[in-house]
Amino acid sequence: MLMIICLAMLAAMMGCSITPTSTSTPTPTTTPQNQQPVEIISVSGPLSPINPGGPILEITLKNVGTEPVVTLAANLELDRSFIFNFDVTSSNPLLPDKTISAKLTLIGGAFSDSISYPLTINGTMQNGATFVYTKQVIIKQPVPDNPEISIAPIHEVRVSVMKSNPPQIGVYIKGGLRDGCTTFNDIEIAREGSTVNIKVTTQHPEDAVCPAIYGYFEKNINLGSEFTIGIKYTLNVNDYTTTFVY
Asked: Which CATH number fits domain 38-138: 2.40.70, 3.30.70, 3.40.190, 2.60.40?
């Protein structure tokens, strides 16, 4: 204590100041939570050939981070969970800026192309960091290269007046798919006075050899409310004709 007092008096006589020193503990760095080093490129299906047990889906992911990914899986929630496991290991990592795909047959599964579903991505990077996050995805039908476009065979058409203000006309269409590679393509609607024409087409991969499995597709269309009460209208869906009164 005497030495400290003497040093302080000496510093005062010499016009100096003594600044106490302190030792600070460095703040440890933490890995940010909910990192998203993997990007969802596409979720597509159903793929050909058509599987009677359930649709085939394909998920494509891309490493958009700077670190290789050594484990990778995706959990798609429909009416139940479907887990896609990707061929990624420590000896075969997913390198930065590279993509990878995984296919899975959804046994007993079903989905709509107009509804979004939660897809949870989880994995491990080469440095040991883990990641998990959930995105909403829409399952889109893949477009084949140079597809053959054909008029779809129509098996059933139902017209209903939906309860709204004003009432709207809804149309249910059930069409056919000629084999296991044929899928729904498009719907075009044209109106000429009291006649409504709907053109429904399918698509088929060019020169593809496909299983001889005849399938079906179903679509619901809203024609709106621009109709006159009491008037009889004709509805043509390809070569299928019916009538309705608004």
From this structure: 2.60.40
Please give the span between the terminal C-alpha atoms of the chain, in angstroms, as a whole number. Answer: 103
Q: Provide the whole-model pTM.
A: 0.52
pLDDT tens for each residue of 42-72 = 998 888 777 778 889 999 999 999 999 999 9
The full set of domain ranges for the chain reads 38-138, 148-245
Q: Could you tell me which of 84, 82, 87, 37 has the C-alpha nearest to residue 62?
A: 37
